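Blinded run. Sample ID left blank on purpose so nobody reads anything into the name before looking at the predicted structure. Input follows.
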Amino acid sequence: MVEISTSILSVKKDEIINVSDGYANNYLIKNNLAVPVSKTSTNILNKELDKRQQEEDESILKCNLIKKYPNETKFLNMASKETSKEVEKEIKDIFSQYHKKSNEKLKIQISNSIKIFNLRKDIDHELVVDALSLYIDAIVIKHLNQYQDNPMDLFDNYDEFKNSIKKYLHLMLYGFLNTDCLR
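Blinded prediction complete.
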């Protein structure tokens, strides 16, 4: 039995499947597509799944709070557009603190997530985390700008927002050049 570490064919990442020893050792494990099932790997998998579930629960909770308090969300969005000089600095400070905290959490999530990738040996892990963080931040800003006049529409179209992030990340991770033309 092996635990799949990358989605392949009809098998999803983190599934445990039965395969022949030869296929497991000579292909899946050799190419970092799976790891042998052991007590340790099962414990690690369970901890990772619990952590993902907790992060998903937190995201759902945040979305539910935003839906529950649409006026407060609208107020925050309007405050971000406030042009009055008297409150401009305070608003910038609040948003700067929030942005800093959310970026720190995002970097931790990215760092944990990219551990499953088989990065090139010459690539600095922290540089990848910074690059992905900047990239995701730009995508988020794009969507915030898109919905700035009707911020609740962003939450009504949350699945579209998530799919957009997935598409952009896929493009960044797998590139957009046809590598055949580089040979």
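Unblinding after everyone has recorded impressions. The chain has a mean pLDDT of 77.
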